[in-house]
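Side project, low priority. Logging it here so it doesn't get lost.
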Amino acid sequence: METQLYDAALSCSAPMEVNQRYSLAERARRLERSHQWLQGLREVADYPQGREQAFKSVLFYRNFERFSGGHLKVWHYFNHVQACAGYHPYIYFYTPESVWDFTNPWRRTAPHRILSQPLSQPDLIFLDGLDWRAIAPRERENSPVPIINLIQHVRHGDSQNSRYEFLTHKAIRICVSEAVAIALRESGRVNGPLFVIPNGLDVQELPSPLDESQRDEAILIAALKEPELGKQLKTELDGWGCQVRLLCDRLPRPDYLQELRRAKLAVFLPNRLEGEGFYLPALEAMALRTLVICPDCLGNRDFCLPNETCFRPDYQFSNILAAIKTALNLNNSQRNSVLDQAKKQIEVHQLRWEKHRFYKILENLADIW
């Protein structure tokens, strides 16, 4: 069964063809382990006591090795539940490798929401990515407890990806873009209803945009996922006499947002091999009124509208360079036109719309499950 719960005026664009399969490249990037991440947390019983028994409990699972956009989105959904009348969220970090440092947003959570053991009888389970591994295999099939499974990447529909096997487990799946939904539909393996809720942007956490006269960086290249390509682009642009800032390493999120804010033009290099499920960084730059160049990575097609909200070249070196050249030659009127159109995408991708659509699922949970 396939359901859409939000108004047509706020829905995604029409489905596009997704014919290419993406292989999984296993990456072993681990931060320094912190085995004291549960210190100072209050021990709680398996099931909430006292007045909280009247509320429905939602159990989140996480393996937090380092901050990522995927963790940020799960954090948003955790807060959606916390703000929903009648529900209480709890989270269980199921691996000893989980890091409990300043980058972990759950540090801001009330201690009794963070569990040393998972609830034995939750009313609802929320999973993302590989979180299925935290549940015993015999308990994954036809769970009597409703499971909401957030799907943030097109690779879930790739038969070579380790996430593919989980599609046959019954769950209410929330896809962050139409591209992700198409990849799952094409697999023919999805067990349970499928919804599309485009990622919402928390504009409250972003700094205010700077006027162009206050921006001291001409071009920012965000190349964390494609550093070699980023270096090639910088070398070429240096030859043009451009002022270029290349980012190939992770920065603390506030520092990264300031880099975006200072740039007149941001060139993003998403995952070229696998594509992306949504690609929030490009939307963040639009919110900061930074001109965006972001190659086609499937998940960005709903808001990266070519020559309207940004430049979205085919993912080739020459095409990206051509887009940069075009962007640099825009006059003020043309530049402001693109930035104004990008601002409209921020309005329809605000976090409140994501929360509103998610609440409609919670309100109809009994019928949907």
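Brief comment: Residues 12 and 302 are 6 Å apart (CA to CA).
Revisit when time allows.
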